[in-house]
Specification:
- It contains three helices and seven strands, in the order ββαβαβαβββ.
- The chain is α/β, with parallel strands linked by helices and 120 residues long.
- It has a single domain (14-36, 43-107), classed as STAS domain (Transcription Regulator spoIIAA).
- The strands form two sheets. Strands 1-2-3-4-5 form a five-stranded mixed beta sheet. A two-stranded antiparallel ribbon has the order 6-7.
- The longest helix has 13 residues, at 58-70.
Length: 120
């Protein structure tokens, strides 16, 4: 990944959407995150995996707070992600089942990702 970039992996299903964020959430990348999430409404059950985020500026913090206010939850098991959630009072989740990049995935606290779950 190039320096100063943000990768946003979009969810492939609507049942349990999980956005994966990787890189730096700052500057123009904040606008891009807001652009791709603009249709989320209050009471969203969307989850944002922020374990791959390495830096967040003040605009990025405002975007995370906005998403939190809409009802989003955040996967953050690394030190930086946990600190972001603690400082900004973001709703954390340690376990989520959702669709990412066309596959059903599972992430649980202190474990590596498991094999894809069977579709029902």
């Amino acid at each position: 990944m190039l320096v100063g970039m943000l990768r946003i992996t979009l969810p492939s299903c609507e049942d349990h959407p999980v956005f994966v964020l990787e890189g730096k959430l700052s500057g123009l990348w904040v606008k891009e995150l807001i652009r791709v999430t603009r249709l989320l409404g209050p009471g969203t059950n969307t989850v944002f995996d922020i374990e791959g985020v390495s830096f967040v500026d003040s605009l990025g913090e405002k975007a995370l707070l906005w998403l939190n206010k809409l009802g989003a939850a955040f996967i953050a098991e690394n030190v930086y992600g946990k600190d972001l959630c603690r400082r900004l009072h973001l709703r954390r989740t340690s376990e989520v089942r959702g669709c990412v990049s066309g596959q059903l995935g599972h992430k649980a606290e202190n474990t590596l990702p498991t094999a894809p779950l069977p579709s029902s």
